[in-house]
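#lab-general

N.A. 3:47 PM
ok so I finally got the sequence cleaned up, no stray characters, all 228 residues accounted for. can someone with queue access submit it? mine expired

B.Y. 3:52 PM
send it over

N.A. 3:53 PM
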Amino acid sequence: MNPQPPLLLALDLTGTFVFALNGALTAVRAARLDVVGVVTLGMMTALGGGVIRDLVIGDIPPATFRDWRYFALAVGGGLVAFALSKLLNRLETSITVFDAMGLSVFAVIGTSKAADFGLGIGPTLLLGVVTAVGGGTIRDVLIGQIPTVLRSELYAIPALAAAAVTVGAIHMNIHGLATALAAAALCFVIRMLGVHFRLNAPGPPGIDADPGSTDPDPPPAAGPGDRR
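B.Y. 4:20 PM
back already:
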């Protein structure tokens, strides 16, 4: 395996910090956790997908445990989100934007690393998507929500698009920073367009999409005096 190019490593570390912000903000807004819970959820969101990818491809111990910068950025992102939660929560789209940024970067990085280990096109695409959505899925499960990848506007599809562009660039021997940024930008744009226009992947015929799929707050539980 070739060492990760410095600029791609920078993207990976950036994605780690951004996903930690996203996970921590979700903890503050949706789960009302304390500082330990906020930082923990930020770390799980930032590191979960990469750990799953590395375990699958046999890169053991995972990169997260070999490079202190991953843990440092994940913890730092969680602490920043906790400290600035009031400010960031005033920005209605902050969680979605941070999530889209992390999704985009991790789709490219995960695909690149899977290809670097000599996997075929199918497994490479799959691991690119898993890297992108794995941390967010862990985040949602830990706070008792249906994972975003299963219910939200165009979540896995943008990651798959970025993975496909990355695989194409690798097979044409033109993969580098420019193509990585282009693939990440494509993922980000598709994801944000999906959120803005509430576009969803096709669901079962006759079943409406969940109108509250982007609301991070779970519905309140019915009290004993409620009557339906």
